[in-house]
Amino acid sequence: MAGLERTIEQCRTLVEDVTFPRARAWKEAGGGVVGSFPVYAPMELVHAAGMLPVNLFGAGGGVEIEAADSRIQSFVCSITRSTLELGLRGNLDTFDGFLFSNICDVARNLSGVFARNFGAKMVEYLHLPQNIASSAAVDYMTGELRRVLKSIERLGGRHVTKEDLAGSVKAFEGNRLLLRELSRIRAESPWLLPASESYVLARASGLLPKEEHTKLLGDALLEIRARASRPMDKMRILLLGSFCEQPPLALLKAIEDAGCYVLDDDLALGLRFLDAPMAANGDPVRSLAQAFVHNAMNSSVCHTRAPRNDWLIARAEELRVDGVLFCTAKFCEPALYDYIPYKEALEKADIPHLHVEFEEKMTAFEQARTQVETFVESVLFD
Amino acid sequence: MTATTTVPQDVGKTMQRDLLAKYYSALETANQRGEPVAYLFIPGNIVELMRCFGFHAVYPEINALQCGIKKVAGDNIVRAEDLGYSSDVCGYVKNDVGLMLADRQSPFGKIPKPDLLVCNYSGCNTFIKWFEALAHFYGAEFALVDFPYIREDGISDGDVTYVVAQLRELIARCEQRTGIPFSETKLRGILELSRQAEELWVQILHLAKEHPSPFDAYFEAVFYMAPINMLRGTPECVDYNRKVLEEMKARRDEKRGPVPEEKFRIVVEGPPAWPHFRTFWELFKRWGAVAVASTYSKVGGLYDQGVRHDPDRPLESIAEYAMGSYTNWNLKKRADLLRRYVEEYEADALVIHSVKSCRSFSVGQADFREEFVNELGIPTLMIESDLADPRYFQEAQLRNRIDAFFESLAQRRLTGVTA
């Protein structure tokens, strides 16, 4: 196996392993570990305290939901149920704390369920500013970050200095720069990198120590650019709706096998949530707040910006896509609500679209593949 | 079991009906008369501020529950689903979109179009998505006021500063839109009326501590609470609460309650099943079960926990009130409140009505049950249906669960088994 293929395989194994081997190793070496629930959490703060930040994304079908059933109703999304299941089964024993934020009511309330069931661990809910148009949003968020930082400092048993924070902000920014580069390659030359590969490379950013992932991704990018793949006659699509719960890898693969190039997506969005270089103002916490308020990526969990439909059409035109695929988790309210205005805007702009719903535990992908194949045929051979 | 009798329509209900009829009648012609219309949500609603600028307040949640009671929510929901809304999202949102598609013609009058959509976000993320969608459909202005969730024990100064700054920004937008300059004196006057109504409302709620409780603090309180939620800041609201208080005191003096004989006292968590309201209530009444406290009657403000509008701290008290709505409290505080209600109102059990539509309410309730049954030893019944979608109400199944629960409570009494 060539170097790149081996790296991709390693990342895939990491993503699918719900025992969190790297977090365990880190813990065994005496370090602290803090997990975050999607979409976004300022994991720089965890890094600055010398702990390992891990981005949790449910169990991806890797566990049977049993214990969580008595605590979360059946009409709630898989990622919520499986994340709790991981905790109740002991898979998260390695973790010293968890961060949640306000993407939706379910994620917020899950923080409360975690607080009661894992009372010995740090469980922090961050109320990120929803009204980013307000002139008070940056001040408010700076205060909220400082509040959580104090909690992280208590957990890590050390004072976090401005220098620590500046170093962490820089390390994360360097990593996001490469993640953006990964996205850019796929948008420009999708034949060089299937989404199912790019996805596991990116997801590893939330599972490995940040510096290690930056090195891994830097090397991978060199090899991706050197790939000899040639363009094929496939449908160019934009995939949206998977910013929190992640579709099974096999579904991503089925979408691509059905004849699609996924030029861009919102998979694991939180890993690259801040979309522009950080302001250097001498206060790294405030820089993070400013970045969230002014430069967060467009998504269903970010409000009071220009209408998202305008963004969608502009992005679709910029990427010259042939269609948009809504790939949403069952019961995911933010994605399901946004689907309506998105759909109407696409119809107005004469851009084809398709909606595919998924659950973590789904195992049969033939139907989704047929759906996408029919979509591709209807567009390419129209 | 006891045969139930229908409680005669009383002043609390007849006056409430008249007040709402007057309210809806004024709405009907608002657009034609060129009067500004603001859509607001009940939790954390900032109607006092909007009254300063002459806005009519429309509450899509109230419209949804009224549509539920009048049995038209099902049709509205189907219309929204035909447009593309998922069967898995909130029935209130779909009712509202369906109502819009039906030219906003409701059984209680024509609802005006919005000029301003004030998303007083408080404890429900769906609210944001709801008004974003309405902004898209109506082309109306969208204003979000973000009220931070109560994530520690209380409200921090930073949270109040953030909310007050946003309220000031909203005031500037309202001034610009209506041409009416903001008057703090006027706001103080309105807030004083709110405060008076709130004091009376708390006295009403506390009367449920009596044995028997003079009223059902869930099935009746949800009607009595309409004025405090919708008409706060008006003399009519103060007058209404005063009359209801008098009526409840009279009932108390006569030892009269909502059922012929109060046999079980329950605390209820979660919204009612509006589309099957009478049937739902009947399932409890037939056991002589009376709600003595409920959390749904606190969604518009936890006045019984000390929340008050304060004319001396106008914007600050609006901010604190809004953050102090029930679903804006973290789960630990919510569970603690439920436990205190059981104790203070001397209830026999907790009943959780979990609704699919409202995850803000329902996620965490199953965990409450674990805590109440296994750790606190409080008998707890958890049932599921919906607040808007009539399709989720399975009467036979609910009846079985409710009957089995009260049978076991009755059995416990006979055998003297506690917890």
- Low-confidence stretches of chain B are 3-8
| CATH architecture descriptor of the largest domain in chain B | 3-Layer(aba) Sandwich
Overall shape of chain A: it is globular
Roughly what fraction of the amino acids of chain A lie in strands?
5-15%
Give the radius of gyration of chain B.
21 Å
Query: What Rg of chain A is obtained from the alpha carbons, in whole angstroms?
Result: 20 Å
Q: Major beta sheet of chain A, specifics?
A: 4 strands, parallel
Measured distance between first and last alpha carbons of chain B: 22 Å
Q: What does this protein look like?
A:
The complex is a heterodimer of chains A (382) and B (419). Chain A is 49% helix and 11% strand. By secondary structure, chain A is an alpha/beta fold. In chain A, α1 packs across α8 (195-203), α4 (78-89) packs parallel to α5 and α12 (308-319) packs across α13. The radius of gyration of chain A is 20 Å and the shape is globular. Chain A starts with a helix and ends with a helix. In chain B, α2 (47-51) links the parallel β1 and β2 (56-58). With 419 residues, chain B is of the alpha/beta class. Chain B folds into two domains: 27-183, Rossmann fold (3-Layer(aba) Sandwich), CATH 3.40.50.11890; 186-415, Rossmann fold. In chain B, the strands form three sheets. Chain B has a four-stranded parallel sheet, sandwiched between helices. In chain B, strands 8-7-9-10 form a four-stranded parallel sheet, sandwiched between helices. In chain B, strands 3-4 form a two-stranded antiparallel ribbon. Chain B starts with 10 loop residues before the first helix and ends with a helix. In chain B, 51% of the residues lie in helices and 11% in strands. Chains A and B meet through α5, β4, α6 and α13 of A and α6, β6, α7, α14 and α15 of B.
